[in-house]
Amino acid sequence: MSKSHPSIIMQKAEEYRDYSANVLSSLIKIPSVSGNEEKIVRFLEKEFKKCGADDVQIDDFGNIIARLGNTGTVVAYDAHIDTVDIGEEKQWDTDPFSGEIKDEKVYGRGASDQKAGMASMLTALKILAEMKKPLPFTAYFVGSVLEEDCDGLCWQYIVKENKLRPDLVIITEPTDGKINRGQRGRMEIEVVVEGVSCHGSAPERGDNAIYKIAPIITALEKLNDVLPIDPFLGKGTLAASRLRSNSPSLCAVADKAAIYIDRRLTWGESPEQAVKQLESLPEIKAANASVQIPIYERPSWRGLVYPTPKKYPTWIMAEDHQFLKNAVKYFESLFKSKPVVDKWTFSTNGVASMGMFDIPTFGFGPGMEKMAHAPNEYAAIDDLCRCAAFYAGFPWEIVSRE
Ligand SMILES: [Zn+2]
């Protein structure tokens, strides 16, 4: 039996069960809130080398990228290595950075979202590096940064600046054991209304921006009800998330009012259309309001600012795409069961890889979506082994069909 046979790969992943659990525990012990990923990047730099990577690079944005192999189809595995903060500490039963291993689970902030994905990738790299070289494909293992703050920006940098354009991206965010082939896109929008201030004792002299924005707020609430529904991805949505206003004093008429919007884009909706849709609302026209997409310009841990408008396109990989058929087939041969093919509720780096650059992308990752950003987050060690086996074996499935 060849070294790449699914049963051998599964056996290898099981042999490395303790490694997978321990390396996840180590990753959790290194806090890495968005923008503060340097320590975990340095840890991974060493770990990727120990696992047998041919090459390890840290790019100027701060992403860490390991490579194995140098020919054939290029598959990139992506795990964002930043996490959200811990939230309310008293909601945690144990230290969020303990990395405790208990009852076949590893606990802590980032366990499911998504350091487990990175742990499985490291094990897969180890398994692949031990096989007889040269490999008939190229595998990249990407630890991407700032995802929780600005999804996909890391991959905008990788594709545009590093000029790395893989044939396939596998997102290792948690999928609850499913294969995910898409997600709704999203964007942030601010609608701004200008008024004219005057003394509050004589409001008729001014033009109150707060009163001018009021009909817009009502119109936005109604617009949410009529946004389109896609049978696979669900409904486009619009939620007002912040209202602010400005005036020279609290005894003056407001000269500015703005409403911040979280907009989720279903299939068939684009950020540009969503802006036009708002601009054509009679209430927005009447108030002469402006519709703006804010710019993300927070520096990465390397101090690099890579500005981007806060728009994150919807993406779906076609059900009959060859890579997706390969993935379903390989899942069946590895786990002896049929996968559920589904979508994510939250957003991932797929907004860039497939949403912006049209690189075929799907997701399969350890952990559970409901654990993301929740207290007492954990990932099951079984999941780590299954995903490590899938990552190590899947490229062989592609190659065997080429
Ligand atoms: Zn995530």
Strand sequence of the main sheet, in spatial order?
1-2-6-3-7-20
Look at the structure and give the CATH class of the largest domain. Alpha Beta
Ions, cofactors and other bound molecules: zinc ion
CATH topology of the largest domain: Aminopeptidase
> Helix count?
11
* pLDDT averaged over residues: 97
Distance between the termini: 20 Å
CATH homologous superfamily descriptor of the largest domain: Zn peptidases
Structural class: alpha+beta
Strand content: 15-25%
CATH architecture label of the largest domain: 3-Layer(aba) Sandwich
Count of DSSP strands:
21
Outline the low-pLDDT stretches.
none
Q: Please compute the radius of gyration using only Cα atoms.
A: 24 Å
Query: How many distinct folded domains?
Result: 2
Largest sheet at a glance? 6 strands, mixed
Helix content: 25-40%
What general outline do the C-alpha atoms trace?
elongated
